[in-house]
Design brief:
CATH architecture of the largest domain: 3-Layer(aba) Sandwich
CATH class of the largest domain: Alpha Beta
Mean pLDDT: 91
Structural class: alpha/beta
Radius of gyration: 24 Å
Protein name: Heme ABC transporter ATP-binding protein
GO molecular function, one term: ATP binding
Family: Belongs to the ABC transporter superfamily.
Membrane topology: Peripheral membrane protein
Number of helices: 18
Strand order of the largest sheet: 6-7-8-3-9-10
Bound molecules: adenosine-5'-triphosphate
Number of domains: 3
Helix content: 25-40%
CATH superfamily of the largest domain: P-loop containing nucleotide triphosphate hydrolases
Keywords: ATP-binding, Cell membrane, Membrane, Nucleotide-binding, Repeat, Translocase, Transport
Strand content: 25-35%
Largest sheet: 6 strands, mixed
Distance between the termini: 49 Å
Low-confidence stretches: none
């Protein structure tokens, strides 16, 4: 059999944890091979080994049947292995071409040579693989989806034969996801081979040929995707059956907790991003905000939480206006916030889990007294959250958050915010990057909050998630409220049209 890459019996240990125990994965030429595993199962570690960022403690890597030692990413590049990281590594004020040649032809680049011929090659590659990228566009002016294509081009420019995609759709809109899937098909049709790390079983079904499932650092098996159901893959991954439907009773909404009246908010470029937006959210209900990314959702949340000023209108919590209050005052009056960007806004990456879990409460008992922190109480608090939210890491509460897997970072934030027992919980993309087992659990916890009489504002780009969890759905388009619908009386199609700006009753017929 013609394998492009084989990783056999790979082991990698970190202090306190065996991240890869005994993993074997074999990549055929011209296939899309999904790598599926729970949060913290060891996927990123395995791919970092293949990309030369870590050395395995044990195991063999072969490229085209020949054993290799990949001591750093340059060696990986030379062997034809490239990686599209989750967080892009692009220089914003530079053009597409400049970014692509940066590093590989730095000398020529500095002397102003050959940028033109590089741009020509970029254009050819872009055409060949259907990427549609303008070689002269500046990175800061192009969409996230386009930036990802630049990362792909970077690999193609270096003649990568094996392309590793690390959760590539986490940051993309549904349309961009479809486009990316087309691009991946083009890539394999042209002879490339792809390893795709993803938690989305739908995507695996849509594009992958085979799927290797790992659990707690061990290979569980490799399956043909066409012959395997989503449920079967999920079960292999978590070791029990997973429900994709959310069980919930009819909500029993009480008094208004959050009242937003004619709210207008400017974004960082001083343009109106939220326009005269009004919405009431009651105790005991989940209201989902549906909208295409970038239609004012972030600014709406930032105005409620105090991260952006309110231009006009009012926001009140339990009948008390929040306008003018600081972020801390708002937190203390009963708002919890699971932020969109966990690394920038949710965590201090170089602090331990214990420290991150008291970021909002460190200044009060039992976590501190007379200005002194109380380590025992802090530890107990962390242990409780780690246990109930299944936050996995090497050394428990003492682990530095930067070393934790992305999904476990997210679970830590959700645990922290839910445990504060707020009146209003604002959850922005709460399950981004989580495995299906954790998603099921987090969804249950959000519904539990609602059933305890809390108000939950859910902002998610996953329409399935909005439909599964919300009692009512408010659709936002271009910063304006298009309409509010009861979830039981709507469907994906209607929401899609409203997200495009049609009022409920004006929606065109099929
Ligand atoms: N540099 C490191 N130092 C210490 N522990 C680490 C390091 N990198 C990873 N780990 C630990 O190894 C385990 C595997 O992490 P890894 O990031 O490979 O998981 P993953 O399957 O990619 O998870 P996710 O789906 O959440 O991204 C985790 O428990 C993580 O905390």
């Amino acid at each position: 059999m013609d394998y492009v890459v084989e990783m056999v019996g790979i082991r990698k240990e970190f202090p306190g944890i065996v991240a890869n125990d005994d993993i074997t994965i074999r990549l055929k030429k011209g296939e899309i091979h999904a790598l599926l595993g729970e949060n913290g199962a060891g996927k990123s570690t395995l791919m970092s080994i293949l990309f030369g960022m870590y050395q395995p403690d044990r195991g063999v890597i072969k490229v085209h049947g020949k054993e290799v030692r990949i001591t750093n990413p340059n060696v990986a590049n030379k062997l034809g292995i490239g990686m599209v990281h989750q967080h892009f590594k692009l220089v914003e004020p530079f053009t597409v071409t400049e970014n692509i040649i940066l590093g590989s032809e730095t000398r020529k680049f500095y002397f102003g040579l050959d940028v033109k011929s590089a741009a020509k090659r970029v254009e050819e590659l872009s055409k060949q693989y259907g990427l549609n990228v303008d070689p002269y566009a500046k990175i800061e002016d192009i969409s996230v989806g386009m930036q990802q294509r630049v990362e792909i081009l970077k690999m193609l420019y270096r003649d990568a034969e094996v392309l590793i995609f690390d959760e590539p759709t986490a940051v993309l809109t549904p349309q961009e996801i479809e486009d990316l899937q087309g691009i991946m098909r083009n890539l394999v049709n042209e002879g490339k081979s792809i390893i795709l790390i993803t938690h989305k079983l739908k995507e695996i079904k849509a594009v992958a040929n085979r799927c290797t499932v790992i659990r707690r650092g061990k290979t569980i098996g490799t399956v043909e995707v066409a012959d395997t159901s989503r449920e079967a893959m999920a079960e292999m991954m978590v070791g029990r059956s997973v429900s994709f439907k959310v069980d919930k009773q009819e909500g029993r909404p009480g008094n208004a907790v959050l009242e937003i009246q004619s709210l207008t908010v400017k974004n960082s470029k001083k343009v109106d991003a939220v326009k005269s937006f009004s919405l009431n959210l009651h105790a005991g209900e989940i209201v989902g905000i549906a909208g295409v990314d970038g239609n004012g959702q972030s600014e709406l949340v930032e105005a409620i939480t105090g991260l952006l000023p309110i231009e006009s209108g009012t926001v009140s919590l339990n009948g008390k206006a929040l306008n003018g209050l600081s972020v801390r005052q708002r937190n203390e009056s009963g708002i919890s916030h699971i932020p969109e960007d966990r690394q920038k806004r949710g965590l201090v990456l170089d602090y331990t889990i214990e420290e991150n879990l008291i970021l909002e409460v460190y200044n009060r008992p039992p976590y501190s007294k007379n200005g002194l922190l109380k380590p025992e109480a802090i530890r107990k608090h962390a242990e409780h959250i780690i246990q109930s939210f299944d936050v996995r890491s090497g050394t428990g509460g003492r682990s530095i958050v930067r070393s934790m897997s992305g999904g476990n970072q997210q679970k830590a934030i959700i645990g922290r915010e839910v445990e504060r027992d707020p009146d209003l919980l604002i959850a922005v993309q709460p399950t981004r990057g989580l495995d299906v087992g954790s998603i099921e659990y987090i969804h249950r916890r959000l519904i539990e909050q609602r059933d305890k009489g809390k108000a939950v504002l859910l902002i998610s780009l996953e329409l399935d998630e909005v439909l599964n969890l919300s009692d009512r759905i408010a659709v936002i388009n271009n910063g304006e409220l298009v309409g509010i619908v009861n979830t039981s009386e709507t469907n994906e199609r209607e929401l899609g049209l409203m997200m495009a700006g049609y009022q409920k009753e004006e929606a065109p017929h099929e």
